């Protein structure tokens, strides 16, 4: 099972495990497989506690005969016993078949595959930007901790972190898209493209549409990286090896860059991977507010119906992304820190 | 015996307060919370219970701020300042109860897993790790979708998805406490599992639980606002997240009605920030090595 879940770094006791890397690898892979199976089980049974008949909900407001209902029930496999529905569901999920959406009358897997690139683009850019910003500011604030810059940056980051992302997005739309007073509307209110552009113009158009959503995600997200980096560097700063490095006569910024920061980066690496796992789930609100054509917006559309197979499929994808990213962090960690996993 | 215990406890609370007083950010947070809590408690006296009534609304729809309505009115003509004050009760209540539930589950599992160890701890910690990996907002949204719309659903959805961090911290602390000699002495004198857990372990993990609760509340308030914004909150009560959803649905964004949109968001941010500042101050008092409050 993955143990690097906590953002503050793993609680591990070095030296208690004696296995070599292959054994560690096998353990992690097995753990991830169990986690994925648990996600399938949860998603299946969670959506079975809903009172009421899914077929009735699906045909709500439409005149449907009993025969048509029975056909639909057979089509969605709802007439089979529960255990058989479950084994069918697992078998299908393993081949990438996540059922049919009630709302769009299309396979859930296909819908998700269509919307995935937009989400990867938006949140990928945002995660890279806020990780870089958080690392840079976290290093600076910790190195000069207690100073004015430290208090200012920590304060601003904590404040932005407390702001609901969807609210910040709405405000940015009002100020920069609709325009307030002397400020003209500079950016589009939503969507991903204006349409009709090709080549470079298309790229620029998409970038223009991305400015506000990326800004929102970065503003709300960088605080966590900053705080983890700051705490982890503060932890290292008491280390004797830094005194040694200084005694050797190294300049201050060399001590920081070559000695302190590489060690302090370790817990942060785990966190960046976990943030990458959040790539899909983290953008639900921002995509909704900016009508970005990605998975988050699709999730919101599915919720308002509610289109249960689609909600279920997206839940599996979001949770699966987290598990895979955690697994990658776990696999990478022993390569960065030789004390782990031996 | 009891009086000695109480003298000691009073002394340690006094020591805690002396150290807490030195964190300026923590004091600001505490001050803000006291003010907001008083305002929320006094809401029925200040604005009366009928601010939420749609049929007896005092103003016309979507008025800008004026003398009578300091923050303007909503689409039904209700006073937004009254709704904002009333919404504080819902947001704070949900935040506090959800955090209490989450920390209670986390503490229970953490203490049991730390105390008993063995296969029980292995299973409990695997479950904890699994929940830790899950994207908690997505899980909370899914839970709120499949259950009926009510305040209790929201509390339950937040509580069930946010306990794992507490469980891990409490388990580690329990193991640390139980390795001390006085636990062995208590066991030698005939103290059973229950005695050790409730009389020795629990008082020692309480400070950690306190700081964890404070930090948890701000997350819970943000999650509540998010769920309400997505339309998964209780439709019969007005919360800050619900106000934002109403504002968006009545087109406050495209028509530039900033006075409808700004106050609830600021209120959420202020309360969440205040709880975070308090939590970090408590954490740095209890564990000066963390350096969080410096």
UniProtKB/TrEMBL annotation, chain B:
Pfam families: BPD_transp_1, OppC_N
Localization, UniProt: Cell membrane; Membrane
Top-rank taxon, per record: Bacteria
Keyword NADP: no
Main localisation: membrane
Keyword Transmembrane helix in annotation: yes
Membrane topology: Multi-pass membrane protein
Family, similarity comment: Belongs to the binding-protein-dependent transport system permease family.
Protein name: ABC transporter permease
